[in-house]
Amino acid sequence: MTASASTLVRRPPRLGPRGRRWFDVLLVGVLVLPLLPLGYALGVVPVGLTLLELGPLLWRRSHPVVVFWAVTAAHALQVLLLDEPLLGQAAWPVAVYSVARYATAPHGWAALAVSAVASLTAARDWSAGSPEPLLTLLANAFFLGAIAATAWALGTLGRTREAYVDALVERSERVEKEAAQQVALAAADERARIAREMHDVVAHGLSVIVVQADGARYAARTDPDVAARTLETVAATGREALTEMRRMLGLLRAEDGDGSGPALRPQPGLGDLDALVAEARTAGAHVDARLPTPLDGRDVPDGVGLAAYRVVQEALTNVRKHAGPDPSVRVEVAVTGTGRDRAVELRVEDDGRGAAATDDGHGLGLLGMRERVGVHGGTIEAGPRPGGGFTVSARIPA
């Protein structure tokens, strides 16, 4: 009974292009910062190697594979020139993470394999001259390998998570578009159905006008009084049909297909509400109904009576679908006011599950009610009832 809305999957917060650029600059700046007080003591070669290792990280997002091999080459040069670690070693796990995060999976696996070889090479180089070279070699290799493997795992996790979130967002947007299309199609179908029903009303009015006009033409020769009364009927029927047409022009389609729809038949109105209530009682609902008398509904246009009938019908259908077993229903329909203030006021409420029930119709029943009432310039409210259940109330100018 309630309209369902698809929930969009929102992307997690991310840095924009400008933010990512400044983050990388800040990262390299923080890693290079210790060189300022230590550069003179370290010497030209260590400082130069450190800058060669850290500098490429500025482009780690846009060119992760190139940056990784540039860092690898700088580290290989370090192994040839020095036997001790440098501050620039921190560039290695960052480069491995960047390849696993921003490149493809094969490049990530290649970076992990190179990291394993590099860890053994660096551990062997740093273990030279140690009192226990084998133990030092194993410890250094394990430590360096663990850092590289952790960086690769984090990068791979970030890449797969981003791909998963992107897939969810794309699917959510697709579902949202499909839901909007379904609502639009439902509205179009409802307008077409109303147009077919109004065709019955207008066709009936025009047939009455034609018959009465022919009768008035013949009666004018023998009994002018009968002709005058007949012409009054023609005028009243014409005004009613014209009013219905004006109400529909702004909302309904200009054409209604090829006319191959169901056969035309008289449409229900206020006088058929008794049968509708009896049908609901037969289906098992406890219905307390207060309906207008035939005299009250005599001057209500057929289109308004049809709209009121359909609203009550849909409300009772929703009670059967959603209210649960043995619901109690109260139906009140009345014709109120006079002249321009004349209107059909209706209210259908139940004490069942109402809005708490699972909606399997995407709210199209309520959409149809609003379309019908809106055609006649009326208002409708539908929602949960205090204390449980559901209420539909409408006012349709007549």
TrEMBL record:
<feature type="region of interest" description="Disordered">
    <location>
        <begin position="378"/>
        <end position="398"/>
    </location>
</feature>
<keyword id="KW-0479">Metal-binding</keyword>
<dbReference type="InterPro" id="IPR003594">
    <property type="entry name" value="HATPase_dom"/>
</dbReference>
<feature type="transmembrane region" description="Helical">
    <location>
        <begin position="62"/>
        <end position="82"/>
    </location>
</feature>
<keyword id="KW-0411">Iron-sulfur</keyword>
<keyword id="KW-1133">Transmembrane helix</keyword>
<keyword id="KW-0808">Transferase</keyword>
<dbReference type="GO" id="GO:0016301">
    <property type="term" value="F:kinase activity"/>
</dbReference>
<comment type="function">
    <text>Member of the two-component regulatory system NreB/NreC involved in the control of dissimilatory nitrate/nitrite reduction in response to oxygen. NreB functions as a direct oxygen sensor histidine kinase which is autophosphorylated, in the absence of oxygen, probably at the conserved histidine residue, and transfers its phosphate group probably to a conserved aspartate residue of NreC. NreB/NreC activates the expression of the nitrate (narGHJI) and nitrite (nir) reductase operons, as well as the putative nitrate transporter gene narT.</text>
</comment>
<keyword id="KW-0472">Membrane</keyword>
<feature type="transmembrane region" description="Helical">
    <location>
        <begin position="134"/>
        <end position="154"/>
    </location>
</feature>
<dbReference type="Pfam" id="PF23539">
    <property type="entry name" value="DUF7134"/>
</dbReference>
<keyword id="KW-0418">Kinase</keyword>
<keyword id="KW-0547">Nucleotide-binding</keyword>
<keyword id="KW-0067">ATP-binding</keyword>
<keyword id="KW-0408">Iron</keyword>
<feature type="transmembrane region" description="Helical">
    <location>
        <begin position="21"/>
        <end position="42"/>
    </location>
</feature>
<feature type="transmembrane region" description="Helical">
    <location>
        <begin position="102"/>
        <end position="122"/>
    </location>
</feature>
<dbReference type="InterPro" id="IPR011712">
    <property type="entry name" value="Sig_transdc_His_kin_sub3_dim/P"/>
</dbReference>
<keyword id="KW-0963">Cytoplasm</keyword>
<feature type="domain" description="Histidine kinase">
    <location>
        <begin position="310"/>
        <end position="398"/>
    </location>
</feature>
<dbReference type="InterPro" id="IPR055558">
    <property type="entry name" value="DUF7134"/>
</dbReference>
<dbReference type="Pfam" id="PF02518">
    <property type="entry name" value="HATPase_c"/>
</dbReference>
<dbReference type="InterPro" id="IPR005467">
    <property type="entry name" value="His_kinase_dom"/>
</dbReference>
<dbReference type="InterPro" id="IPR036890">
    <property type="entry name" value="HATPase_C_sf"/>
</dbReference>
<keyword id="KW-0902">Two-component regulatory system</keyword>
<keyword id="KW-0597">Phosphoprotein</keyword>
<protein>
    <recommendedName>
        <fullName>Oxygen sensor histidine kinase NreB</fullName>
        <ecNumber>2.7.13.3</ecNumber>
    </recommendedName>
</protein>
<keyword id="KW-0812">Transmembrane</keyword>
<dbReference type="Pfam" id="PF07730">
    <property type="entry name" value="HisKA_3"/>
</dbReference>
<dbReference type="InterPro" id="IPR050482">
    <property type="entry name" value="Sensor_HK_TwoCompSys"/>
</dbReference>
<keyword id="KW-0004">4Fe-4S</keyword>
<dbReference type="InterPro" id="IPR004358">
    <property type="entry name" value="Sig_transdc_His_kin-like_C"/>
</dbReference>
